[in-house]
């Protein structure tokens, strides 16, 4: 029997795989921009793709993480890393692409993370928070390893769309609708919001006054 | 029924809340000094306030961490972040304030962390170590995310007061005294020691000779 | 009854202790090079020596980590830190030594990590991955805390020898041979490969073309 990270729907497994893939590509692109070699690209792709899910699984007590025992989960970020390594010149403008893949991963993971947490018996509020952490975790690990300020701390809308996307998924789960009917819109809401914030240059308010040192 | 991070005494819950609040303020102040926006302030406040406890809970197997499921624990760092965001100019000299709040959090967490570890069946030595890790964890997460050298590595007395405060709490627990009688002195000992070391500029010995490169 | 991190063989406990010791020395040497004081040296030694094992134990659900409850495991990195603190000038060329101790720790941990994971019921592939993570974890923690790019991301052969060493250990475990007959060769293979890659300056391929920014 093959284990799966998100039960029960095949839809959720697919969304999770796609999330791992796009996050892993964002990690691989950061590695390429840093001038790392193929192993650095693979390590960053693997960490970015699986880091958020590992963090979630450790916090909800789902250890060992299912991804450790499932060939598919292990190979997806490797494939993403190899694709990035060989085809990155065709990918063109890097920074923008990193952000697009990162936004897609954020949307996918905040939803699958929240639904898996519900599945493990967490209440609605903790489940939504676990969804946000799942979405944020991989990017934080990527940025810490690469020596960048984590994207979640930079001046952009990031944690909020993840929390809202996760909350929509949690609300949908209790609505009795089919998973299709709320998971896809929740992913689109989070990813779309994040991309719109990037494109429009939306900025959150900064502290008034200067920070006296 | 509402879950609580530290059983059984209401005193310990209060100390834990105060620890989360002051650590979260130290995180928010670092974010303000870095010029981050309101979300960055909230994320750093949340991570600093809850990071040490999450680390402890994962290591002792208390997952999902009770703080994830308790509104009070979740809102305390948000409140601290908002306070920091709006009132930081009144807080004046930042670096010194970060250190004072950080020392208070260190003292509170090393005690509540050690007592919770005892509560989960750990022996005295591991419980004291878990107390130290709980005290250190939030500040390390804050500094890593903010791109600073973690305070525990800088040339000051930091880990030792946390370990001693935790050891006093562990010894007190086995003494049969009421929690009041040993928890408060243990907090004061750790925090006072840390503040005194800061004020007096106490420095620990450095390696003799130069580090040949 | 004293708990041990690696059951059942005394050989594995010994290998684990030696791994902790040499990784802790590599952490202490990084601290000395950074000009940290004695507490910084001890903290980095402790984190580097025990970080990989803690990561493994949290992921396989072996919490609280046995190392937390075993005096021997706790004192070994402290002893390594003190040795580094007092005798580092005699240790001579730092960077090269860090790398040698790091390679030895990598080899020891990838094997003991994989065998402990098997012991906890993981399958061969996840166990080999856990071995790799155990080997990599301490060095990543050391480098993140010290503000260096993690060695696993730099342009050298690092993760691959750890994965192969762990895989050899996993294969050996199922061969029915005595632990001696496969654990030692697996350690030597990983450490030797890593040291040879360092000495020969082997480099992995880098992405073709420039990373357009």
Automatic annotation (TrEMBL), chains A, B, C:
Spans traversing the lipid bilayer: 12-32, 39-59, 71-88, 100-118, 124-145, 157-174, 180-197
Q: What does the record list as coiled-coil region(s)?
A: none
Record's keyword annotation contains Transmembrane: yes
UniProt topology in membrane: Multi-pass membrane protein
Q: Which Pfam families match?
A: Gly_transporter
**What's the chief localization of this chain?**
membrane
Glycine transporter domain ranges (all copies): 14-88, 100-171
Entry-linked InterPro entries: Gly_transporter
Q: Which UniProt keywords apply?
A: Cell membrane, Membrane, Transmembrane, Transmembrane helix
Does Membrane count among this protein's keywords?
yes
Compartment annotation: Cell membrane
Q: Which family does it belong to?
A: Belongs to the UPF0126 family.
Q: What is this protein called?
A: Trimeric intracellular cation channel family protein
């Amino acid at each position: 029997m093959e284990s799966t990270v998100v039960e029960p729907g095949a839809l959720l497994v697919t969304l999770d795989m796609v999330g791992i893939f796009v996050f892993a590509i964002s990690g691989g692109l950061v590695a390429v921009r840093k001038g790392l070699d193929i192993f650095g690209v693979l390590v960053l792709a693997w960490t970015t793709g699986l880091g958020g899910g590992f963090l979630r699984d450790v916090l909800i007590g789902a250890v060992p993480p299912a991804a450790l025992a499932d060939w598919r989960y292990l190979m997806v970020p490797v494939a993403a890393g190899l694709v990035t390594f060989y085809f990155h010149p065709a990918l063109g403008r890097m920074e923008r692409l990193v952000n697009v893949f990162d936004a897609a991963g954020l949307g996918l993971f905040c939803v699958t993370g929240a639904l898996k947490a519900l599945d493990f018996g967490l209440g609605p509020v903790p489940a939504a928070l676990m969804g946000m952490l799942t979405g944020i975790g991989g990017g934080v690990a990527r940025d810490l390893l690469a020596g960048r300020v984590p994207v979640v701390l930079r001046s952009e809308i990031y944690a909020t769309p993840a929390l809202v996307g996760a909350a929509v998924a949690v609300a949908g789960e209790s609505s009795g609708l089919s998973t299709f009917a709320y998971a896809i819109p929740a992913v689109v809401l989070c990813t779309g919001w994040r991309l719109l914030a990037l494109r429009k240059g939306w900025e959150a308010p900064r502290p008034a006054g200067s920070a006296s040192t």
